Amino acid sequence: MLGANGFTTLLPMFQIEWGLSNTQAGLVAGCQYFGFMLTVPVLSALTDRFDARRVVLCGLGVVVATSYLFAFVADGFWSALIIRSLYGTGFAATYMPGLRALTDQIDDPAMKARATTWYLVAFSTGVALSILIAGQLAPPLGWRGSFGIVAALATVAFALNIFYLPRRRAAPAQPPTLREVFDFRPVLRHRPAMAYVVGQCGHTWEMFAIVSWTVAFLMYVSDRAAGTSGWPRPTEIATLAAFAGIPASLIGGGLAASFGRRKVILTAMVASCGAILAFPWVADFGYPAAAMFVMVVMMLIYVDSPVLTAGLVANAPEGRAGAAMGLHTFLGFCGGFLGPLAFGAMLDTVGRESTMDWSMAFATAAVAGMIGWLPMLRWGR
After folding, report:
1. CB 323 within 8 A of CB 193
2. pLDDT value at position 229?
3. For position 316, what pLDDT does the model report?
4. Number of helical H runs and strand E runs in the chain
């Protein structure tokens, strides 16, 4: 995940260097999730028939290749769009297939839920570090140097998985045919699973919209506010905010174990929606207020992240866990693609010169985050 947010962290710089509009910048920021969502249903569903380890290793090979290509080949909108889209396909082959490779090793349901939480904490850690690496290494090394280091670290991850990712313990006695593997109708008809799928779509929309545009918004606040000296830079604040999501994920998993997933998710959706809507107006009080409140926003967004995925794993139709994970991440990262794009398109429509302009862009994320509330209320277990 160390290459996940390099582009979005340096988005203002790329806009200047490559002459990108807000919509183009949002499109490049979201295109990796477009590549992800096109391929993840197929790649995740294949784990119902084949060992997930094979899928993960292929995906990591794509991540390594595209990381090097972006570092040394990308030179504008179209090349960045293509390379980051291909990066998304590698991401698709590692994310849910990686979770499947993990959970296939565990029989106890409670341990499986805890392992899922920690897996998603590792995901959040990688996302946070991707912001830190880009923000800290780009000034002294240039953006190509920072992406080159990320590519080298992806190569290390590839080697670690070759040597340490275990093969599944036993193949199914009667593995589904390829036709059955790609039949998603049993999942679509399973309402408890679909409640978590729809919830994930809204959650990912709001999360990646906020992650993609936080640095740009903090730079806007910093440019027009006094009293920013002594405070961390926007990239550093965004990194700290992403790290704040890690304990929030653990807290969310603990709360779900105590009070039930459904209650935690319904409450977290409302809380994150309100915080996102308030964020631009809190920033009117100055850069320190924005820097502190963004921590609150990210924590509220991340509270239900592992809970949604653990709920999907627990409620997947029998024998169709891979297909359910594929649909979960496909619709989820449809939101991941649309979130940054809708945010940027709104800024292109209304401008980015006032709090009201930014509040309308943030509203696109806040409203989208609520689309799973009613399905979770009616169908969620």
Report:
1. no
2. 66
3. 83
4. 16, 0
Note the pLDDT tens digit of each residue in 223-266: 877 656 678 888 888 888 888 888 898 899 889 888 988 999 99
Q: What is the pLDDT of residues 256-290, one digit of tens each?
A: 888 988 999 999 999 999 999 999 999 888 888 99
Distances (CA, A) of 135 to 22, 113, 130, 274: 20, 33, 8, 29
- How far, rounded to the nearest angstrom, does the alpha carbon of residue 185 sit from its chain's CA centroid? 26
More confident residue, 23 or 273: 273
According to DSSP, residue 108 is labeled -
Tell me, what amino acid is at 278? A
d(CA 290, CA 254): 28
**And the tokens for 253?**
């998993």
100-153: per-residue pLDDT in tens? 898 888 888 888 888 888 888 888 788 778 988 998 899 999 999 999 999 999
With helix as H, strand as E and coil as C, how does 282-313 read?
Answer: HHHHCHHHHHHHHHHHHHHHHCCHHHHHHHHH
In terms of C-beta distances under 8 Å and separation of at least 24 residues, what long-range contacts does 132-140 make, across chains too? 132/235, 132/236, 132/239, 133/2, 133/6, 134/5, 134/6, 134/9, 134/10, 134/235, 135/9, 135/10, 135/233, 135/235, 135/236, 135/238, 135/239, 136/235, 138/9, 138/10, 138/13
What angle, rounded to 10 degrees, do the helices at 261-282 and 191-224 form?
Answer: 20
